[in-house]
Amino acid sequence: MSVFLSYLAEAFYSLNTSLVDEPPPGTELDVCYLGKQVTFCKDLEKGKRFSVGSWYISPMQHAREFCAVTSICLLVLCWTFPILGRYHPCTNNRLKAVRPPFPLKLVVLMAVMVQVYYKAQGYKGKIWFWLMPCNMNWLLLFFISFYPALSWQVSHTILQMCISFSGLAVVALVVPDVDDLVLPLEVPFFFISHAILAFFPFYFVVTQQISTLPSQRTANAVSLYFVSWLLVTCSIFGLFYFSVVTPLSIYSGLNLNYMLSPPPNQDIVVGPWYRFLSCASVGTVFFVMRFLATLGEWVLISVKPPSATKIE
Asked: 73 Cβ partners below 8 Å, 6+ apart?
């Protein structure tokens, strides 16, 4: 195992040998990237210095966390999906895909188009920031809005996860990191798009097109359904960002979703194990959002029983 970890650590390091050991403060004379000819932070395009990646945690640490998180997430998914298969959600229409109505489709389309513009016009490499969680959330909503062969099962699964993912939009609004947003109106768009994203999935719960509750209303069924969807969401999120985005972050030299160093302007999620502290924080956010959605739906259906809702 140690030989494999050493090989994997070397592979991670070889993806980008120009990264510095610590996140550069970004002052004029700081080195942002190594190489035959070093790159000073002052020579980077406007906004990019705030997104520079580094070896804040060592390649060996990356290798260990890659193996641990990937294994745990795959095991959890293998355990939870069969459980979810035993429970049907409390919704009447499971034949058609769940899609937003036309006005919300326009909102999704506009949000994605504006993001495409900002990513294309930004500094070199900004396109990689499509991999940030809220941008991926918009892409998921774009997929369920416009993919023609969408099934109910796929749309239902995406929206169940988006309920928890919406909590990350709330976090982005409470603790915004807008240092690299330098294009005209990019900062206002950041706040508007995240505010919309925070509430978007709840439209489907309120209109009873998806449900956070199983058809069996026993305490055991509700609890198991809740925990299973929470674990699925956390596992897919962890699998994507540790197993896919981290290597891409190293390769691009950019701190995508803070996978290479902690978020700025805070002193809590820091240190060599900061990514596990971040996992705990994200898991808590996912739990709170799903709990609020479940509680809200429980109150809603106690007033108005579930009914078939026309699917756009």
From this structure: 235, 236, 238, 239, 242, 243
DSSP 266-299: -SSS-STTHHHHHHHHHHHHHHHHHHHHHHHHHH
Residue 119 one-letter amino acid:
K
Written as tens digits, the pLDDT of the chain (312 aa) is 789 999 999 999 999 999 999 887 766 668 889 887 888 888 888 888 889 999 999 999 999 999 999 999 999 999 998 888 777 676 656 668 899 999 999 999 999 999 999 999 999 899 999 999 999 999 999 999 999 999 988 999 999 999 999 999 999 999 898 888 989 999 999 999 999 999 999 999 998 889 898 888 788 888 999 999 999 999 999 999 999 999 999 999 999 999 999 987 778 888 889 999 999 999 999 999 999 999 999 888 887 755 544 433
What would you report as the CA-atom Rg of the chain, rounded to the nearest whole angstrom?
21
Instruction: Return d(Cα 174, Cα 311) in angstroms, integer.
Output: 34
* Residue among 23, 13, 21, 16 nearest 59 (CA): 13
pTM of the model: 0.90
**Alpha-carbon distance 286 to 201, whole Å?**
13
Residue type, 38: V
